[in-house]
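[Amino acid chain]
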Amino acid sequence: MQIPASRKIHRQCHSAVSYGPKLPIGKNGARIQTYLSSAIDDHSRLLLTSRFYDNQEEAIVEDTFHQAILRYGKFVETKGIQRSYSKKAYPWNNACIESFHALIKREWLNRFKIFNYNHAYRLVFQYIETFYNTVRIHSHCGYLSPDEYENLYRKNLDELETLAG
């Protein structure tokens, strides 16, 4: 039995692009500015995907959501996705993704000399999968990690479905 829509928590995902490190990927090893595009679930703060790009075009945000859908399937709601743009210097609309970008730079990326895209990708993957989603606690999640919060949410949904019969 399905839980009535009124009992489901509204889930919303945000994506944002932030400045990444300058990498020696240009002609003759020239250092080129990269951009980090990420998608996060506002409900649990679960980081769905994060990738580096060499441009800031709109298509990278679409690619970020596409990667999240490939990885999490129906978890990412694809119906009714709306583009919205925050006003300049107004980060409150997507504060959790902006916070993630600040954290990954401060807590992880700034510790390393990054040599190329593959190295950057491995570092981001390592941070997300071995720390951010699994260990790092969030006050929004009752001081649980995003994985623990998701598991608790699913357990509560299962109990509600059992009670609903």
Residues 5-164 form a domain with the Nucleotidyltransferase; domain 5 fold (CATH 3.30.420).
